[in-house]
């Protein structure tokens, strides 16, 4: 059992780390003032954190009388965390430092076969990536999953887009890596990334909406993610928008995801295009090509995106009235065309949501775009480190 003084010290240590993450360059005096703890306590915590390699001095600033104040920041050459973002078509792996910068990353196509085969291949990819990382201390691996998780057992209960059910993900990683493995739902990870390192001030309640192949939302109230009674909360993509609309992967009709996701945009564009061209088997364009076309002003691509924005406006208006959020951050591949999407969505919310709710909400594009979940998954490892729940880690030497 931890004594209460140890608990207080651990909490102070975490607060110091978070304060330096938010505002690199603070001095000990500024930390003491901001956190309302004694300069002596801050001094002793900083000494410990310096010893651990988590905090470094970045020189002295102008003196305010007496000794010049020493500026501190999290050690950008210190421990790193591995983030893994399991997407429907792509697995992204990255290495994040304590300044919130991705030092290395790679994407590999996700081959969908069967649970174990997929997972073993992904673990191997992560192993390779870690092996090529020249030096540093890896303190853990964070995995972002587009699905329902059983965090206690480290299990993916169901991930429709990956075709996974009841998969012991944490164990599969733990068999290969000595470091702690943490898991998080991908949209929650994306919101965490914005909150920790993004340009967006994520005030409460905040929402992150991923507009990718599917559509999902992270809902955070009182700084806690809403999971729901069956861990299904945030399934914005399956809100029925048009009962006579397109068939959805969930079996219903007219879900937001079936009308306005990246996949929906791609399918609709290619269908209309081949009809217009009177060439039934014209080679379909990828989503990214379609978004590019729209940005360049191609009429059909613009029309299809306008329709998507209209349905997204409806979906987000429902969210705005239901949760009265302060911030909605929009991310995912579709936001590559954020210049075309953001304005009509915001306009729809402002003309259709209850006026007080519309006035309170700021809708913005994600700072990290398609890297958000990756950065968030790795940040979760740092969160564990800051809370003192995992050790700083072991030196990793390059494998030859
Ligand atoms: Zn659905």
Description:
- The chain is an alpha/beta fold and 400 residues long.
- The protein has three domains: 71 residues, Winged helix-like DNA-binding domain superfamily/Winged helix DNA-binding domain (Arc Repressor Mutant, subunit A); 134 residues, Nucleotidyltransferase, domain 5, CATH 3.30.420; 167 residues, Nucleotidyltransferase, domain 5 (2-Layer Sandwich), CATH 3.30.420.
- Strands 3, 4, 5, 6, 10 and 16 form a six-stranded mixed β-sheet that branches. The chain has a five-stranded mixed β-sheet with strand order 13-12-11-14-15, with helices on both faces. Strands 7-8-9 form a three-stranded antiparallel β-sheet.
- Helix 2 packs across helix 3.
- The C terminus is likely disordered.
Task: Note the overall shape.
Answer: globular
CATH class of the largest domain: Alpha Beta
Mean pLDDT: 90
Number of helices: 13
Which features would summarize this protein structure in a list?
Nucleotidyltransferase, domain 5, single chain, five-stranded mixed β-sheet, 400 residues, alpha/beta, Arc Repressor Mutant, subunit A, 42% helix, disordered C terminus, 16 strands, six-stranded mixed β-sheet, 13 helices, binds zinc ion
What's this entry about, in short?
42% of the residues lie in helices and 21% in strands.
Helix/strand layout:
Elements: H1 4-22, H2 28-35, H3 39-51, E1 55-60, E2 70-74, E3 80-86, E4 90-96, E5 102-109, H4 115-132, E6 137-145, E7 148-150, E8 155-159, E9 164-167, H5 169-174, E10 181-185, H6 186-197, E11 206-211, E12 215-221, E13 224-225, H7 256-260, H8 262-277, H9 287-295, H10 299-323, E14 327-331, H11 338-352, H12 355-360, E15 362-365, H13 372-386, E16 394-395
Parallel strand pairs: 3-6, 6-10, 11-14, 14-15
Antiparallel strand pairs: 1-2, 3-4, 4-5, 6-16, 7-8, 8-9, 11-12, 12-13
Zinc ion is lined by residues 238, 248, 250, 252, 255, 257.
């Amino acid at each position: 059992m931890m004594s209460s003084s140890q608990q207080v010290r651990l909490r102070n240590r975490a607060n110091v780390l978070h304060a330096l993450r938010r505002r690199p360059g603070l001095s000990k005096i500024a930390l003491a003032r901001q956190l309302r703890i004694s300069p002596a306590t801050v001094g002793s915590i900083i000494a410990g954190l310096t010893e651990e390699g988590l905090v470094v001095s970045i020189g002295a600033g102008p003196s305010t009388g007496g000794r010049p104040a020493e500026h501190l920041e999290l050690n950008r050459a210190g421990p790193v965390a591995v983030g893994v973002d399991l997407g429907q078509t792509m697995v992204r792996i990255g290495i994040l430092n304590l300044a919130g910068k991705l030092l290395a990353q790679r994407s590999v196509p996700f081959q969908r076969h069967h649970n174990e085969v997929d997972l073993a291949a992904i673990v191997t990819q992560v192993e390779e990536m870690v092996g090529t990382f020249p030096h540093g201390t890896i303190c853990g691996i964070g995995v972002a999953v587009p699905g329902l998780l059983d965090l206690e057992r480290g299990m993916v209960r169901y991930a429709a887009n990956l075709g996974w059910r009841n998969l012991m993900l944490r164990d599969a990683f733990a068999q290969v890596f000595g470091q702690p493995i943490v898991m998080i739902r991908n949209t929650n990870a994306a919101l965490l990334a914005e909150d920790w390192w993004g340009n967006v001030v994520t005030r409460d309640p905040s929402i992150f909406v991923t507009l990718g192949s599917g559509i999902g939302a992270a809902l955070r109230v009182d700084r806690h993610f809403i999971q729901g009674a069956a861990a299904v909360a945030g399934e914005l993509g399956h809100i029925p928008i048009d009962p006579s609309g397109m068939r959805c992967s969930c079996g219903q009709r007219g879900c937001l995801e079936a009308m306005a996701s990246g996949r929906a945009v791609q399918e609709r564009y290619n269908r209309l295009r081949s009809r217009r061209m009177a060439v039934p088997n014209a080679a379909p364009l990828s989503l990214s090509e379609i978004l590019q076309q729209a940005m360049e002003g191609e009429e059909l691509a613009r029309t299809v995106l306008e329709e998507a924005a209209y349905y997204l406006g409806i979906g987000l208006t429902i969210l705005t009235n239901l949760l009265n959020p302060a911030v909605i951050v929009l991310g995912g591949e579709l936001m590559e065309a954020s210049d075309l999407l953001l304005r009509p969505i915001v306009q729809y919310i402002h003309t259709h949501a209850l006026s007080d709710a519309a006035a309170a909400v700021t809708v913005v594009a994600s700072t990290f775009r398609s890297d958000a979940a990756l950065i968030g998954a790795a940040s979760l490892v740092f969160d564990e480190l800051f809370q003192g729940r995992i050790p700083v880690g072991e030196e990793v030497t390059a494998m030859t």
